[in-house]
Amino acid sequence: MFVVSKINQKNADFQVFFFRIQPVWLVKRFKWSKMMYSPGIIF
């Protein structure tokens, strides 16, 4: 669980950066992708 928690934290930090630099449509697509896959996994 600790390792998974660390991975989720790293992904959360990445998401903040990702949302700031990407166009709105990519952000929406990313949010949709998050709903389709397991939490903490980025595609």
Can you give keywords for this protein?
elongated; 43 residues; mainly alpha; 0% strand; 77% helix; single chain
Task: Describe the secondary structure blueprint for this structure.
Elements: H1 2-21, H2 24-36
Structural commentary:
This protein has one domain. It is an all-alpha fold. It has helices at residues 2-21, 24-36. It starts with a helix and ends in a 7-residue tail after the last helix.
Give me the count of strands.
Answer: 0
Largest sheet descriptor:
none
Using the alpha-carbon principal axes, give the shape. Answer: elongated
Give the % helix: over 70%
Mean pLDDT level: 66
Q: Kindly, what is the distance between the CA atoms of the first and last residues, rounded to a whole number of angstroms?
A: 21 Å
By DSSP (H or I, 4+ residues per run), the number of helices equals: 2
- In the predicted model, the low-confidence regions spanning at least 5 consecutive residues are none
Strand content: under 5%
Radius of gyration: 11 Å
Give the number of domains.
1
**What's the helix-strand series?**
HH
Multimerization status: single chain
* Structural class category: mainly alpha
